[in-house]
Structure prediction request, 142 residues.
Amino acid sequence: MFHKLISVAAWALLAFIAYATISPIQVRPTLPAPTGFEHLTAFAVLGLLFCLAYPRHITLVCLIILGSAVLLEIMQLLTPDRHGRIQDAIEKMAGGVLGIVAGRVILYFEQVTGSRINASFVATVCGNAAHAIREMASPKRP
Prediction:
């Protein structure tokens, strides 16, 4: 059941990223963070989810994540108010690779310890990641 939820979340996130990437600029959802950070984190989470959803299909996962990063940037060239940039594609691909590596590490520890990934583990990881993101995005005080 939990594995199916991760698969649905992975595909839903890919659909949302596609919408955010190729939608008109005025309706594009944004975060109060630099766009490079948005690209990196969105694709890192996407890579992690796909890696956990399809652990035995790492080649397909890499193709989906890295291919979608490039394809979405190319698709932006076809819209009149958006622009695809190589730097954006590289940021997305780097985030995707980080997410895939994180997923592989989680799967490795799952195999070594013999325990399964459960909802509380993912919630803990996501909570820690959200805290780290907030810390990085907040202005530093002297």
